[in-house]
Design goal:
single chain, 384 residues, alpha/beta, 8-stranded mixed β-sheet, 16 helices, SAM-dependent methyltransferase, SAM_dep_MeTrfase_SAV2177_type, methyltransferase, WH_DNA-bd_sf
């Protein structure tokens, strides 16, 4: 469709050519409907034939451009045998995700993004928290400005990569607990960040395939990647919306949220590594309170937050200086300030603790000073 509108039969033929498998009509129709619902494609009339064809929308073209510019130019594709028949039969989206994973493993080169080729909606010259976080995690989906900002903070706080990994591990443990122990099957993940290994829907659907997840972020690059790479299990569902947490109503009223999640049933609200980017002037406590108020009893709030509590004064001074000059600054909060987000909720053991201490797996783990963040999970309404 990047070359112009395509009729259904032409799309089907191209999928057969690309995958070597013949997709079922039901599968292809569902895929096209989902892409249309996400606003990536639309149907148009072909005047010369009086028939209809599928075409990319402006958002779809932006998504394709974002994915193309972040592809590994010149890297060797994985052998065809690395894709199982089952993965290939599921269609090009699943195959593409697996190929991307194998390609990442087969090359150590960092994906460099030419700033002059960035889509108009993506400002590559300004660091973005999600892309900087991706850099700390060892990802490739970031620009030079993000890497420079990440290195500036790493220079004064060498544990930043450990802190990023601990934050990610906390999220995964929380999702596993919510799915396996609390019986949660719905997740609203605000501040999604760029896709990486073991995303929320993958962790949840591994335990409960019917789990449903809505991802929310305000970076077009994040949403472009999410739509391309975050594929749900057959029984479950995933959706993706571009919205700003500072406008909770735009999230709660979004049709994708209402269509994917049953807001009358318990769900988990995930706000991981997000609220420290909301300054006091924007009243983050009111934001959390509004979102929590929209959830039924039996739901959960999962939250992680940067803190300076375990750091020495010299590190704090140097980190503060770097924080103000390395992209969007974060607002560290104390344990007492983090506790305010959970007012009126029932904290799940072990309460508000260092990221690395929340229901940690056995074995050595980083210190509180290395993790530099708090994590907690709380239940909305009465305890069972």
């Amino acid at each position: 469709m990047s070359q112009g509108p395509q009729r259904y039969v032409a799309i089907r033929a191209k999928l057969v050519e690309a995958s070597g498998q013949t997709p079922g009509d039901g599968y292809l129709s569902t895929e096209l409907r989902d892409l249309r619902r996400l606003g990536l494609i639309e149907q148009r009339d072909l005047p010369e034939t009086r028939r209809r064809a599928w075409a990319l929308t402006d958002l779809g073209r932006t998504a394709v451009a974002a994915i193309d510019q972040l592809s590994d130019s010149g890297s060797t594709p994985p052998p065809k045998s690395t894709l199982s028949d089952a993965e290939t039969a599921q269609g090009p989206a699943v195959a593409a995700r697996r190929k991307d994973t194998d390609s990442d493993r087969s090359t150590s080169r960092r994906r460099q993004v030419p700033e002059e080729q960035a889509p108009g909606s993506i400002n590559s010259s300004v660091p973005h928290p999600a892309r900087r976080y991706n850099y700390w995690l060892g990802g490739k989906d970031n620009f030079q400005a993000d890497r420079d900002a990440g290195e500036a903070i790493a220079a004064v706080f060498p544990h930043i990569r450990t802190a990023a990994r601990e934050n990610r591990a906390f999220l995964q443990r929380a999702v596993r607990w919510l799915t396996a122990e609390a019986g949660i099957r719905q997740f609203l993940d605000i501040g999604t960040g760029l896709p990486t290994a073991d995303n929320v829907h993958e962790v949840a659907q591994r335990i409960a395939p019917q789990s449903r997840v809505v991802y929310v972020d305000n970076d077009p690059l994040v949403l472009a990647h999410a739509r391309a790479l975050l594929n749900s299990s057959e029984q479950g569902a995933t959706a993706y919306i571009e919205a700003d947490v500072r406008n909770p109503e735009s999230i709660l009223d979004d049709p994708a949220v209402r269509d994917t999640l049953d807001m009358s049933q318990p769900l988990a609200l995930l706000m991981v590594a997000l609220l420290h980017f909301i300054p006091d002037d924007d009243d983050p406590y009111a934001i959390v309170k509004r979102l929590v108020s929209a959830l039924p009893a039996g739901s959960y709030l999962v939250l992680s937050h940067v803190t300076y509590d375990p750091l020495d004064p010299d590190t704090i001074a140097r980190l503060d200086a770097a924080n103000q000059n390395s992209g969007p600054p974060f607002r560290p909060r104390t344990e007492a300030e983090v506790a305010r987000f959970f007012e009126g909720l029932h904290l799940i053991d072990p309460g508000i603790v260092s990221l690395s201490d929340w229901r940690a797996d056995p074995g050595p783990r980083p210190t509180a000073a290395e993790a530099a963040g708090y994590g907690a999970t709380a239940r909305i309404g009465t305890l069972p």
